[in-house]
Amino acid sequence: MSFTIVDKRGNDKGQQTGNKKKFLKRVEGQIKKAIPNIVGNTSIKDITSGKGSIKVPIKSIEEPSFTYDPATGKKKIVHSGNDEYIPGDRIIKDGGYGRGRGRQGSNDPEIGQDEFVISISREEFLDYFFKDLELPDLVRKHLQAIVDYKRRKAGYIQFGVPSKLNIVKSYQNSLGRRIGLQAYYKKLIKDLEEKHEDDKKWCSTDAELELLIAVFNEQLEELKKKLACIPPFEEIDLRYNNTEKYPVPTTCAVMFCIMDISGSMGEDEKDISKRFFMLLYIFLTKQYDHIDIVFIQHHTEAKEVSEEEFFNSDENGGTIVAPSLIMMRDIIKERYSSKWNIYCCQASDGDTWSNQDANECQTILANEILPIIQYMFYIEVMRDGSGALWDNYMQLTGSFENMAMSQIHEVNEIWTVFRSFFEKKTPK
Fold first, then answer.
1. pTM of the entire structure?
2. Tens digit of pLDDT for each residue in 328-359?
3. Domains: count for the chain
4. Which of 282, 277, 286, 285 is CA-nearest to residue 258?
5. Tens digit of pLDDT for each residue in 192-227?
6. Rounded to an integer, what distance in angstroms lies between the CA atom of residue 403 and that of residue 406?
7. What is the distance between the alpha carbons of residues 410 and 125, in angstroms, rounded to a whole number?
8. Are residues 299 and 360 in the same domain?
């Protein structure tokens, strides 16, 4: 007797069906090309809200194929992307049955291709968003108080909850038990039959033979019932997936986010800065399990703020940058030892109260911050040319390899700059 077990349980959370994976693989390039426009035209909060899906326009989902004409081998067929016809043209059929004249064709391969819009989950979109990105020069350092554990498979156990039942292993145990019991009872039946034939030789009377046959039939019937009643599953067959905790090396990092909110930062400048920092925040919290994020705002004074205040406050005032760097330096001394990977990202329009402020920022970075941190990123938003802060920072890039700078003039440039900062570096 054979058994067929059909596993109708749904996919595990976060897993996709095979067909969907293949489809997303085919359109992966078009999804990546659409990312800059989505960043520029969609609210980052909408992207990361966790509700609904992201709509991505793609040109086509067709695959190239050969077309055969078994009759003549000569048949005119209009394919998408041809350089002679466009949708709506009237063409003459083979054999001269139709009369018409097509309009002027186009040599643009994009014309004639249908455009589709696909919907993917926000989790899938963020996977494409941050693929091949990482914090530069991240080094594993010891943690004094935090021990991280993960779970891994550790064979099977005989008892557990139904959700961890391993159907395949349980069926294998059941099959082995039934094969073993069937072989055991068949051997008993065979031995009984052989013994019965031998015993019949010693029967001297018909009464003894009848009694012997009656006992034999009773014993044989009992063995056949046991053979036919072997249960398909017993509790001893069941096996459950087992896991065990194991310690893993922990990487600890902190990112300082410093944003200028002074009067010189207009609505457009603040919008670009907040979009960049929101992108950075999502990247850090999605990609890394243990990371601290410190938010600092400044105008004439600097203050540490909460995440909500950092992305929603709108203040004005003069511009003095040095206090924000001094606050970062003091926080590092108080909270973060040399066992931490320290990063900083600063956004500003580049205006300063005076050249003295820009010079002080350069001195603080060169003497107290850059020597002890892993990397610093500086973005200057919507500025034509360069200001005192940019010029002073540029002098540091020649002496420190752990500093990167870039300018953003419009929203669509955010993704390009972000990717240039965090793209994985190929090992030398």
1. 0.55
2. 999 999 988 777 889 999 999 888 888 899 99
3. 3
4. 277
5. 998 888 888 888 888 888 888 888 899 999 999 989
6. 10
7. 23
8. yes
